[in-house]
Amino acid sequence: MKDNMAKGMTKSETLTALAEKLGKSRKEVAEMLDAVVNLAYEEAKKSGEFTIPGLGKLLKKHREARMGRNPATGEQIKIPAKTVVKFRVAKAAKDSIL
Fold first, then answer.
1. Looking at the 3D structure of the chain, how many domains does it have?
2. CA-to-CA distance for 94 and 97, rounded, in angstroms?
3. I need a labelling partner for 84 at 20 to 30 A (CA). Which of 20, 61, 65, 76 fits?
4. What is the pLDDT along the chain (98 residues), one digit of tens a residue?
5. Do 35 and 52 belong to one domain?
6. Domain extent for 96
């Protein structure tokens, strides 16, 4: 018996589940999922965010340079500025899952 709490669904399992739920072929579902993912990447890169209603928001955020510490040696190091991607979970998703 498969323990779903230990690991999430694979892409293949996700496509099969969505295809069955929507009455579409796996190929159609894969094309739709790829289109959503590509749209999310393009919009987050262009405008800095992409919202999936009811699920959350993909955010592009600039992180300033800062001082940190090398955990092995304790030596102080300068961490350079960089752009990071974050995902902020929607309240509806939190309420449904927790």
1. 2
2. 5
3. 76
4. 455 556 899 999 999 999 999 999 999 999 999 999 999 999 999 999 999 999 999 999 999 999 999 999 999 999 999 999 999 999 999 999 98
5. no
6. 48-98
